[in-house]
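protien #1 (seq + structre)
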Amino acid sequence: MTGDSDQTPLEIDQDTLRTMIEESARHDRAFALLDVRELFELIRGILPQAILIPMGQLMNRINEIPKDREIICYCEHGIRSEAAALFLRSQGYDARSLAEGMSTWKGPVAEYDG
């Protein structure tokens, strides 16, 4: 955790996240992806190595989210992920939300094997 989440912009744009994912393939990932969608929404796929915790379960499963890395939250359109990022920030996490969510994502996806 950096402690600077108050000054970090809440949203991250899709190009920046795509670059982060590409660079993390060559280095240890300094961030974690958090998918807050429901299971029925995963037909489009899930971002590689993402943690799936539907928004309604976030408070009860917060201990599954690493605190030592930046958390990038995402959902279908960016609304729930913004709420998730704000909640995580209130709990001391360095969190951001993917702008526009999966509805416009043009980067890598993996099939959810839950």
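ok now protien #2
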Amino acid sequence: MALLVILVSENSCLYRQFPIPDFEIQDDITAPGLITLINKSENYEYIYYDIQFRGDDGGLVEYDNAPDEQEHVFTEHGYYEITITAENEGHLQSCSKYYHFE
């Protein structure tokens, strides 16, 4: 007769995994450089965006860290890394997307 033992970590039962946050980048075709960030995340207590600019020389420069703003106007041509960070019950999740402003 075989004895089967299954070990279950206490943390694995109590820890609720939240989905990775997501957002959409919408261009405003009437205003070049104007984008709107649309939050598609659910069940998070706090969400903020962090935007960094990567110029033609490849250097990464902090551009904006405006948690409550959803509209951003880009004036410099290049690539922008936009990261959404969401927090719930002390756990952080983030997702990055890239936007090219020509």
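Residues 6-16 have pLDDT under 50 and may be disordered.
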